[in-house]
C-alpha cells in the first residue's frame, strides 16, 4: 500500500475517536442533537494489528482492515478477549458450511423456472422465466447475430415480453464456446486487465453486508452461502451509526480466534470510520452514515475481489437472506441477465486510442443526475430485488402471510464498461449509441472536470500493470467522488441507491419493475436474548425512538412489543403469527419454488380457470420454509423457532457449561437437558 494512502487511512481512524482537534471548526455540533458528535466519553481502547492473509488465488482477504485502527475495548477493558466479552455468544458446535446437492450446485438449467412478481402490484399468479445453460445462451447469441441481429427494445418491452420463453438476445462479451477449465483460472482472472472479459460460465458471486455484533445471524449467513458465494465483503466500524464508540467485534474475532476458520478464506472485512456530520440533516445523523456505509462496502468490495466483467454481486443487510439455491441458479445459469442489464455488451480495449472513455477524457459529454449519477444506458434496472417474507423476532411472526413485502437484498451484474467510463454500443431501446445525439439530448457541450480523483478513506489499491497503464483508476466508474458529506454533491456511482433503494416500492419504482418471487427471509430483530437486544438497539439508525427512555424502560418496551407481536420500532399493526415445525419431507425442506414443471402445472390450472391448489400448497410451504442451517441445528437457533427461548426459556449455552461449548455433542445429552434446550421437541 502507498505510504501516503496508508497514513491518511490511519488518520481517518484516529480522527473518529479524537474530535477535539476539529472542535473549533464544528460550530458546536452538540447543539444539533444526540449522535452528531461521536461519543466523547473516555473509554479504554484497543488497537487493531493485522497481517496479510492471502487466499489460494492471491487475494489478500485482510487488505481492507485498517491497520492501527483504534476501537473501544471490549467491556471497556483492554485485557478482555472476544471470547470473554460479556455478550459473547458461542457458535453452534462444529460450525461448518451447509453442503448442497449437485442439482443445486451444478443445476440442469432448463429444468428451472424463476418466478417473479411486480414490486408495485400483485398478480394472481407470478410471472415465470425459464433458464438455460450459459453455453446454450452463447450459441443462441451467435445464431441470432448471424440470422437476425436486430437489437431488442428492452427499455419499452412489457413484462410478458421480457419473460417469454423466446430467446432474449444478450451479449456476454465472451464468444469461445469451449469452456475454460484451467485449474489456475481465477488466479489469472484477478490479474487480468479490466477490459478483458472472463468466461461467464465461471463468473463469481460476491455478497456485501453490514455488521454490528450479530454473530448468530452471521453464523447462519456464512453457513448457508459458503458453497455458493465466492467472497463475503463485510463492513464494520468502530462507531455505531447513532454515534456511539464500539469495539470491532468481527475484525477482532477474525484476527484473534478460530470461530470462522472454515469460512475465513472467503471473508473480507472492511473497517471504516463513520461519517463525520458537520451540519444538521433532515433524517438525523444515523441514516446518512448508514447510506455511506452501503456505498463504501460496495465500492471497496468490488476492488477487494478484483471484480471483472460479468461477475455478480448482491448487497443487503445481514438479516436479509435470499434462498441459497436461487443464488446458485443465477450464478450458474443464463437467460435472465437481460432483465437487469438489457442487451449487455463488452468493454473495448483501452489500448485503442479511439475508444472513448468519459472518465479518461474529460472533454467527452456525460450527463449527470442531480446527485451526480452518470446517465448512460448500462442497464434496464440498476439491480434486481429478492422479494422476501418479513419475519420479526422469530419465524413465528410475519408481517403478511400472503405476500412477501420486503424487497432486499438486491443483485447486479458488474459492468466493466461502466467501471472504465466507456459508452455502450447500443441504447436500451436498441439503437446504436450516437454520441452527438446523446450530447444534444442533454444539452451538453463540454463536461466539467472532476476536481479530485483520489477519495480519502480506506484505500487498499492493488492494480495490475495493465490496469494502471490505462491512465485511470479502473474502478472509477463504481466510485463516488465525495464521501465526506451526506449531501451527495460528487459524481459517480451511488451504490446505496443503485443496489438498495431503487427497489423501494414506496419510492419512484417503475411500474414494470419485478422481483424474485418469495425468494428470501428478512429476519428482523432475530436476537438471542435481552442483553443482545439492548446492545443492538443503540446501533440502529432508528435509535431516536428509544434515546429518551431509561435502560429499564427500553427493556420493558422491547418485551412488550415481542409479546404484542409488534415491530421493534414505530406504531405499526401487530404481526401475523404462524406455527413452525421442523421439516420432515423433502418438499418441506426444499419446496419446488423453481421447478419449471411445477410452474407449467400452475399455469395450466390458471388457464383452465380452476382452483389453483398447486400454487396454494406451494405458497404454504414457502411461508414455512426455513434456512437449512436453522432446521439442521434447531438447538443452536432455538429462539428463531420459539421466541420464548432467550426470554423465559434458557438458550443452549445458558445450560451447557462454558468449558463444554465447543465440544458438546447434543446427541449425548440427557432427555432432561434436551427437553429444556430443544425447540419443537416431540414427546418421547
TrEMBL record:
Compositional bias annotation for Basic and acidic residues:
1-14
| GO CC terms | membrane
GO MF entries:
beta-1,4-mannosylglycoprotein 4-beta-N-acetylglucosaminyltransferase activity
Q: Where is this region: Disordered?
A: 1-32
Q: Which InterPro entries does the UniProt entry name for this protein?
A: Glyco_trans_17 (IPR006813)
Q: Which domain of life is it from?
A: Eukaryota
Regions that span the bilayer: none
Q: Provide one Gene Ontology biological process annotation.
A: N-acetylglucosamine metabolic process
Protein's name according to its UniProt entry = Glycosyltransferase family 17 protein
